[in-house]
Design goal:
mainly beta; four-stranded antiparallel sheet
Amino acid sequence: KVCLENAFMDGPMAVFGLVRVLNISFHKAVTVKWTVNDWSTANETVCEYVLGSSSGNTDKFSFKLETTSLPVGNRLQFCLKYDCAGEHWDNNEGSNYVFQVFLNSNKGVPRARSQ
């Protein structure tokens, strides 16, 4: 009923993503629950409906997770919550979605990679 369609780094401190949801009802909410410290603390970001995105029986939402610069080795983890006729989750089959910062061997600067 909810799934991550795409996610990518949008600059050095932000992850942008697109979420597809089943159009069960007009009233719906999509939220990203995310952390940068292995769930010691968590943040929630409300997704925005993408105008004109309805396709068949699905709708599209977008999000942008903004954080401070992450040190090499740190991870940003997230999962998706869809509230519509109940609560539905996409947590990458229990593994969460992950962006981890690695040292870029070409330039010696940190870069993020999704897992």
